[in-house]
Write a structure and sequence with these properties.
The chain is α/β, with parallel strands linked by helices. It is built from nine helices and six strands; from the N terminus they run βαβαβαβαβααααβα. The protein has a six-stranded parallel sheet with strand order 2-1-3-4-5-6, with helices on both faces. β3, α3 and β4 form a beta-alpha-beta unit.
């Protein structure tokens, strides 16, 4: 199995280095780049194929949600999986990320185990679907579980089954990390 080509996007150099180390420690992923601005991320994505982006929302030149919209609208990259890793815990950020197709939202600070749990889900789904994370339609058991081209995590499915996101407590269902869930009132 080919490791997922991963781009780390975070404006804080020390945090980006830490996230890079966390991803490198996961056997299913390979870091192919690390950038600190939205513009650098788009430039990198125009030059290189990436399967997964770890995206901070607070970037110096563009909000991460705008970068996410740009990523989704660009034809060569609409299926690139994104894990939002951010200090943003507010309901609107979670809703907007979810609306843009984000299944994995991790509030900082988080542990390597929190991130590896999400990476495990993304890697499993990518290999179940034979190809880029959502680049080809699912077949066999994967298609029966989540439909053509769809790949929500078990945690996401459980969260959505509990109802729509209407409050910060509801948003906590989609946020990884026990300490982060406590801070937003879950």
């Amino acid at each position: 199995m080919r490791p997922l080509r991963t781009l780390v996007v975070d404006d804080d150099f020390a945090v980006a280095d830490l996230h890079e180390r966390y991803v490198r420690a996961h056997r299913g992923c390979a870091v192919v780049g690390k950038v600190h601005t939205g513009q650098a991320a788009l430039g990198f994505l125009n030059r290189q194929v990436v399967d997964l982006v770890l995206l901070d929302l607070y970037l110096p030149d563009v909000h991460g949600l705008q970068l996410l919209r740009d990523l989704r609208e660009d034809a060569p990259r609409p299926t690139t999986e994104v894990i939002v890793v951010t200090a943003a815990r507010d309901l609107e950020s979670v809703r907007a990320a979810r609306h843009s197709g984000v299944f994995h939202y991790i509030a900082k600070p988080f542990t390597v185990q929190d991130l590896h749990g999400r990476l495990d889900q993304v890697v499993e789904a990518a290999h179940t679907m034979r190809g880029p994370v959502r680049g080809r339609p699912a077949d066999g058991p994967a298609r029966a579980r989540c439909g053509a081209g769809c790949r929500p995590s078990r945690g996401y499915i459980r969260a959505v089954a509990q109802g729509p996101v209407r409050s910060d407590a509801d948003a906590g269902r989609l946020v990884a990390g026990q300490s982060a869930r406590r801070r937003i009132g879950e």
